[in-house]
Amino acid sequence: MALQALQSSGVTFRRILSHFPEELSLAFAYGSGVYRQAGPNSDQKNAMLDFVFTVDDPVAWHSKNLKKNWNHYSFLKVLGPKIITSIQNNYGAGVYYNSLIMCDGRLIKYGVISTSILIEDLLNWNNLYIAGRLQKPVKIVTMNEDITLRSALDRNLKSAVTAAFLMLPESFSEEDLFIEIAGLSYSGDFRMLVGEDKTKVLNIVKPNIAHFRELYGSILQENPQVVYKSQQGRLEIDKSPEGQFTQLMTLPKSLQQQINHIMDPPGKNRDVEETLFQVAHDPDCGDVVRLGLSAIVRPSSIRQSTKGIFTADMHTKIIPDGMIRRLEFASK
């Protein structure tokens, strides 16, 4: 499985994990504190460490974490673990973030998501939020033997490649591909329109080509629709209508439905397969896919950021200099 190449035995991450309840199906670290980025987030030493914890039973996990780390939570902690879990699952993108936490000498932020909701996002791209984060290099700190979760993680990577292929020309470079993949979960993200560095995706990809290659190399080698010249860093794909239709039919369900909604004229009520067949023959196929992605990402990013106002409780915490912008966009 491609993700195994990025597993980490880093002592720093494991020491931080020791401060939390152990019942985690998956824990990973990500962002500029883990992988070097170009641009304004290039200072790894002082960067905040970002984590996501995946749990089978969020109520039980939050109950234990409230006992161990009461001060991590905002004012919502007084409502108890059941309400916190309800907020986590039912608002935003299914993840609950505690931000600006000093833990083992490092400033961290961590999100909690239920295993079942993560699997749904990985397979169907309901929100493309944590699924989008997992399309970029991450450091997996711990992962259990859940076959369904592992399979969904792998499926998410393959779906990312397919979506990127549909938005690329017949011939392109590895860097072109990885830029498209890294940008999938930023398509339509309102934060990219309100002051965020427009070169963010480039800053993620350029210093980490080798890590992207580790993540996607075997998928590209095994994909029958691509000629992958790894030595030259070049790829060629089938851009025929038949090839594009095959790719469209394997896209995650939510993206297919959004494409159908965009292309289906009022009153027609065509089924998804008929719409995808039309899109496959459309010279603007890639643009349609991009619009479908935006229709998923934009509402989920707005809802999740709104939820963050209540879960972060920043007025009770001292924010170090230079951390505010880092916090605003670190959740992806």
UniProtKB/TrEMBL annotation:
Pfam families: Tam41_Mmp37
Compartments in which it is found: Mitochondrion inner membrane
UniProt key word Mitochondrion: yes
Any one annotated GO CC term: mitochondrial inner membrane
Named cofactor requirement(s): Mg(2+)
GO MF annotation list: phosphatidate cytidylyltransferase activity
GO biological processes: cardiolipin biosynthetic process; CDP-diacylglycerol biosynthetic process
Pathway: Phospholipid metabolism; CDP-diacylglycerol biosynthesis; CDP-diacylglycerol from sn-glycerol 3-phosphate: step 3/3; Lipid metabolism
Glycosyltransferase among keywords: no
Keywords attached to this entry: Lipid biosynthesis, Lipid metabolism, Magnesium, Membrane, Mitochondrion, Mitochondrion inner membrane, Nucleotidyltransferase, Phospholipid biosynthesis, Phospholipid metabolism, Transferase
Membrane topology: Peripheral membrane protein
Origin: domain of life: Eukaryota
Main location: mitochondrion
Reaction equation(s) it catalyzes: a 1,2-diacyl-sn-glycero-3-phosphate + CTP + H(+) = a CDP-1,2-diacyl-sn-glycerol + diphosphate
EC number: 2.7.7.41
Enzyme class: transferase
Role summary: Catalyzes the conversion of phosphatidic acid (PA) to CDP-diacylglycerol (CDP-DAG), an essential intermediate in the synthesis of phosphatidylglycerol, cardiolipin and phosphatidylinositol.
Similarity comment: Belongs to the TAM41 family.
Name the record gives this protein: Phosphatidate cytidylyltransferase, mitochondrial
Source organism phylogeny: Eukaryota, Metazoa, Chordata, Craniata, Vertebrata
Gene giving rise to this polypeptide: TAMM41
